[in-house]
């Protein structure tokens, strides 16, 4: 007798959880890429701030006019603000990455729980079918034993 195929009744739910986990994985990857762009922006802003400071030092050492010194100071302040803004933006991106990572962990746990349930049900199905098959084999063996006893 052939074992009937196992049919998990919650397969649609399992499939949906797999899909949710995949979406969470894609969102995390997207946020990580976004964060990397933020790191590049911060590096660029830091380099611009350093260049502004170097320019200001050069301007001050060569005996610049007051308006040149004010312009250089304004440029330093703008570069410093851009660097601070980039650092704040990177912190926000870090927070978003952490949230996406947590969402992925949650989605993975949900999928794993339904996978464990499916495996448990498959195991129960196999055990029940093996028990039934063994019962049928026992009946056949008993019938053959009776026939053998009746012939003697």
Your description of this structure?
With 152 residues, the protein is an all-alpha fold. The mean pLDDT is 91.
Summary of the model, kept short:
By secondary structure, the chain is mainly α.
Helix-strand layout with pairing:
Elements: H1 11-61, H2 66-151
Number of helices: 2
How would you spell out the order of helices and strands?
Answer: HH
How many domains, as an integer?
Answer: 1
Give average pLDDT, whole number: 91
Dominant shape = rod-shaped
CATH class: Mainly Alpha
Brief descriptors of the model:
single chain, 152 residues, Helix Hairpins, rod-shaped
């Amino acid at each position: 007798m052939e074992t009937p195929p196992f049919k998990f009744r919650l397969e649609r739910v399992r499939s949906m959880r797999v899909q949710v986990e995949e979406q969470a994985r894609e969102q995390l990857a997207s946020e990580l890429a976004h964060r990397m762009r933020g790191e590049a922006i911060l590096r660029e802003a830091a380099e611009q701030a350093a260049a502004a400071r170097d320019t200001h030092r050069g301007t001050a050492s060569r005996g610049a006019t007051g308006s040149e010194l004010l312009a250089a100071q304004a440029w330093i302040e703008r570069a410093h603000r851009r660097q601070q803004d980039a650092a704040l933006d990177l912190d926000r991106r870090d927070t978003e990455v952490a949230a996406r990572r947590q969402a992925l962990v949650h989605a993975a746990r949900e999928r794993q729980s339904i996978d464990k349930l499916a495996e448990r049900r498959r195991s129960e199905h196999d055990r029940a079918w093996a028990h039934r098959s063994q019962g049928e084999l026992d009946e056949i063996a008993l019938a053959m034993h009776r026939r053998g006893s009746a012939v003697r």
